[in-house]
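As a warm-up, study this chain.
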Amino acid sequence: MASHAASLPHVFLQPEMPFLPTLFMTYIGTLLVSVNPYQELGIYTVSQMELYQGVNFFELPPHVYAIADNAYRMMCSELNNHFILISGESGAGKTEASKKILQYFAVTCPMTQSLQIARDRLLLSNPVLEAFGNARTLRNDNSSRFGKYMDIQFDFQGIPVGGHIISYLIEKSRVVYQNQGERNFHIFYQLLAGGEEERLAFLGLERDPQLYKYLSQGHCAKESSINDKNDWKTVSSAFSVIDFTEADLENLFGIIASVLHLGNICFEEDDQGCATIPDTHEIKWIAKLLGVHPAVLLEALTHRKIEAKTEEDFTRKTVIGLLDIYGFEVFDKNGFEQFCINYCNEKLQQLLIERTLKAEQAEYEMEGIEWEPIKYFNNKIICDLVEERHKGIISILDEECIRPGPATDLSFLEKLEEKVGTHAHFETLVPVCSFADIH
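Now compare it with the structure written out below.
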């Protein structure tokens, strides 16, 4: 059930289970648990939206529309901000659920003709966000590789007046490296497959993605289940609706092409141990596309500079917030981004435990209801291992990054062994002593 921050609404999705029509969605208290059936069920129609509009929460079968409608009605009656949190494993259908909630508000909320453009822009922002933030992984051909928080802003009459999207923790490392069987972000392949010949010529690009290091490391640049050419048409249409000008697009695709050219640059080491770039063919293209002098670009690529950045604040009206985050995944080799993603999901698991397993059983006990206690693992010990002040993994990593002298993987590992080596849930796969023998 949707409500304000004191009682956070939740949609929890599971990725794979045998399809049971009557158990596709269910409630645990006010938590909606949804199973991804990996097929269209015909339950997201306009008639279904109308059916759930203004209906008491438990009056109809569990549905994501009930979550959306309850959040809207509670916001209007209480005049408070409300938030919907969507979590689940990678491939569970979190992003699809967020789309369904957006579509529900677009169809059922009061709408004026002057707000039609704003509504369309909000809905059509999804293809653009997915093009730049989604990629094929081993688990999911359209996996969101970034977190997204969206405000849907309403006036005092409950009429949607706009939206604000914040994307965060995008998986930047995917731009330069992909695991076997995975791809870079969709937009690169879409541009090569569907871009006009004149545009590609201006960008200095060829259509074959195998020509670019940043697109070919996963050895699946062309995937039969993904139609990059058709997806390019969808994204191009969305650009026009959300008011990207031709100048905006020229700058945008100039940056995208520059990334591909950057991946093909070859660095060498000179006699002083410094990095050099002997072949300047790619440098000339990048300099042209970014509007910088080639010498300045060479300097930037071979010398390190550190800049401080500040965050910008923004103001908000009464809103319904919609949070769509990464899914939990375990690979043979997890990077730092996936570590952060999995840690975030562990924190959400804590919320699930508090809101369902502990709270529901406490209510049964208080009311004297007989039930079979459910045994579960309380993952607080895992979260403490990661986040505990002065003793957690993140705190130790912070110390290693700022201490005087060179900080290395080995020094970080040694410090972990020293501080958390005896923790029941910490294991070093490569013994510290063996690092001295690795060259």
